[in-house]
User: What shape does this take?
Amino acid sequence: MSRIENKIIQELKSKIRGQVISPTEPDYNKARTIWNAMINKKPGVIVRCSGVADVITSVNIARDSNLLLAVHGAGHNIAGNSVCDGGIMIDLSQMNSVRIDPKSKKAYVEPGAILGDFDHEAQAFGLATPLGINSTTGVSGLTLGGGFGWLTRKHGMTIDNLISADVITADGELVHTNENQKPDLFWAIRGGGGNFGIVTLFEFQLHKVGPDVLAGLMVFPFKDAKSVLKKYRKFVQKIPNELNVWVILRQAPPLPFLPKRVHGKEVVILAILYSGEIKQGQKLIKPLRRFAKAHGEHTGAMPYEAWQQGFDPLLTPGARNYWKSHNFSELSDGALDAIIEYAGKLPSPQCEIFIGLLGGKAAKVSPDAMAYGNRDANFILNVHSRWDKAKDDTKCISWARDFFDASAPYATGGVYINFVTQDETDRIAAAYGKNYNKLVRIKNKYDPNNLFRVNHNIKPTV
Ligand SMILES: Cc1cc2nc3c(=O)[nH]c(=O)nc-3n(C[C@H](O)[C@H](O)[C@H](O)COP(=O)(O)OP(=O)(O)OC[C@H]3O[C@@H](n4cnc5c(N)ncnc54)[C@H](O)[C@@H]3O)c2cc1C
Assistant: This one.
């Protein structure tokens, strides 16, 4: 870690309303720790902002003192881009208010809010917008990379529901941006990550959802994986946008509705969400039960907010994680064979293969409407390697990489930027495809000196 001059720390302490944490202070280690335990970076100072003024001050001091600058929303980014070695970490986690206007169905969200904060406030009015599947993920990073989850088929990506944002740019100015105000900046932040400034407020469109939805899991034996996946592939071609079904291949967790003999055995899990009328959903999911003889099932009406937390126990912070990801427009036989082969040799009990289903409304937006352009990604594959001990690093990382290589021939070549790991900087241009050059032009305009570079960096060319 390169130390920061004491006079800079003292200047921050005199100007910041929130907390300034230097490496010698007791809160330092906790404050620099993020979700993925593979990341162990040590910033020179951490500024826990309590409001927009603190963000502006931190940006100005970082720029004028030539400090490396990292921005922390909720610290879920797999690549560890919310923290840096040396430099300043701008921690937004305390700025987490969510205000709902039920009449106009809008949400005004501060950048430290997690998905659980958002859903909690919005569901008090039976409202929601598409977010991810783990309630402790940050709204900020998820939105700036695109954002998808159970409601995406019905209501689009998270960014398709972003109405406006307040952004602190590299020169420390507060800019309000939407389709009409600084539209180039608004285009860029919808997928382009934290490259263009620090977002201090998001305005989202909300939709009526729940409070009860039909949701749950069906768990099938791994020996039936091929037949289940083939039937799944056919089934999802004709489902309404209110219905979403994802596939998870992993060792069965000790879920109470599964027989004990199945715990720890490889299984195929269908995770289901229907956001329409419950009775109609019950009819729609009936064919899933005929895919094979299930080990067990737990489906029914439940609060949307509870389903949004359903996967939290499997995704707790503190484990070592390494991800690889592909986009697929379709699940070809070759892709299914690779998936089944590698699900059959999971290197740790926590490793899993996730297949997220998109399409629906997300596929109806033009690929050049905003920075996120992967509208052909009907399925996003997340190879989630996860384990506890450093001695297993090589084994678990190799499994993810080998599977990634084996399934690459069947993928589109695009990738969801929020699933890109720290060693994949060569995939950034591929993640944006034809939109990349426009992103560079906008980066040249708003951040020519690349102050915001601790991210999946779009490098300026000026
Ligand atoms: C367990 C888990 C489950 C996930 N599930 C989903 C899912 O279902 N759907 C999905 O779409 N994604 C999902 N993701 C990916 C997730 O979208 C990204 O990890 C995202 O980066 C998390 O946002 P964050 O604010 O927590 O991240 P952070 O690590 O805090 O930040 C991520 C990046 O965004 C930048 N950033 C953060 N806040 C701001 C801001 N206000 N202004 C400017 N830049 C900022 C940071 O500098 C960093 O580069 C999941 C991730 C995890 C770990």
Observations:
- The pocket of flavin-adenine dinucleotide is lined by residues 35, 70-78, 81-82, 92, 111, 132-134, 137-138, 140-142, 144-145, 147-149, 193-194, 198-199, 315, 418, 455 (CB under 6 Å).
